Amino acid sequence: MKLYRRGEGRWVLLMFFIGLALGTFFEIYPFLARQAPVPAELLVVEGWVGDDLLAQAAGWAESNGVKRIVATGGPIELGSYLAGFKTYAEMTKARMEALGLGEKFELSAVPAEKVRRGRTRESARALLAALGLERGAFNLASEGPHARRSWRAFRDAFGDGVEVGSVALTPTSYDGQDWWTCSEGVRAVVAEAIAYAYDLLPGGGGE
User: Fold this and answer.
1) Which residue from 152, 121, 149, 142 is spatially nearest to 44, judged by alpha carbons?
2) Which of 22, 91, 124, 174 could form a disulfide with 154 if both were Cys (CB 3.0 to 4.6 A apart)?
3) What gap in Å lies between CA 12 and CA 86, rounded to an integer?
């Protein structure tokens, strides 16, 4: 009888850990892709997002009372000598103008300096310096599972006086329902989960 109970306990423990792992697996995407906008007339878009996601951000802005869109981002790392733009911020402002968004919103670009690590945090610091906000609110739009890390970097840079919301743009090749069915989704979600965990360590925050 004791052996049976001991074995039964092991099965209960095993099922518990399997359930915990499955729960974590299926909840990791919505956790990373933080969808928590706040009422604000300013939308900040990370300049490295793709064209489809930029169009998504524009659609969200039109539906949510946005009056101003700011593009952030540091130096372009690939093909910058072939283009007239040296930073993602400047390039994305031009992309928004090409979409006709200049007729609907006030558009601006806030380039960040080149850094070896901590690019998102450098973009946040550059935006803080440009806006000079001590009170107020804005939303930050980023790609899917990257949204939480970016939100955390901008929230930390602006401090308690500024409310920072987050808008998680849905990647074109996967979403929260099927990210594990394609290599792009697996790479993005697993990498972001690891990076977020690292970001929480003392001395982390490398992105």
Assistant:
1) 142
2) 124
3) 58
Full domain range(s) for residue 164: 32-200
Q: Which of 111, 35, 46, 101 is nearest to 68 (CA)?
A: 101
| CATH number of the domain that residue 156 is part of | 3.40.50.620
82: Cβ contacts below 8 Å, ≥ 6 apart: none
Q: Give me the pLDDT at residue 199, please.
A: 83
Answer yes or no: is 25 within a domain.
no
Into how many domains does the chain fold?
1
Residue 159 one-letter amino acid: G
CA atoms within 13 A on the CB side of 165: 16
